[in-house]
Amino acid sequence: MKKLSSMIALGLTLSMLMGMTVFASDSPSGNALPTAPEGSNYTVNEFNLSDSKTTEEQAMAALPAEAKAQNAKEVMRFDLTGTSAPPNNEVKLTGISVVKLNDGKIYKALHFVDGAWKVHDVEVTGDGAITIKGVTKFSPFILVSYTEPEEEEEDNGYYVDTVAAPASATGTPVSPKTGETFPAAVAVMFAALAGAAAVGARKIGMNR
User: Fold this and answer.
1) I want to staple 70 with a disulfide (CB 3.0 to 4.6 A). Which of 10, 141, 146, 184 is the partner?
2) Nearest partner of 80 among 147, 141, 171, judged by Cα
3) pLDDT at residue 168 above 70?
4) Domain limits, the chain
């Protein structure tokens, strides 16, 4: 019984670990914080999700449906502090080693502002460099990524259509080629032969 209980406990533990949310299971612990360019009016600091008094599910719910369908994963968390909005409402960051230019991924920034999670578009400007668009306030961010969806090919199914016989410049239908009239010619020939045979048989009967 003790052995059975131990196995059940182990199974429950594994189930709980596998059932953890994507942020918990894929959180890239140990990643260095990104760096703000020299002269920026904001600084980058560490961020713990518990500080926002929200859950991972609440943060994830703010993502667009496309990101959810593609199983968006967390890249890193960080907090931005500053005295005023960034120039052009754009936050530029570098030093994110896992971000690569043209890596086939789409990046979004979850932003905890005014007590709720919002989503910002992210542009990858180079290896390890991003620009977060539309930022007017500084507060915690979670950078996420997901694979760009493949475009669905249109269904170009073949179909049979009736094509009218071509016409000459005067509007008169063009005669079909010899090969196209061959089956009809054969049918006429057999009909003629059958008629001739019937007439011949009738004459033979009359001469008896």
Assistant:
1) 146
2) 141
3) no
4) 21-147, 176-208
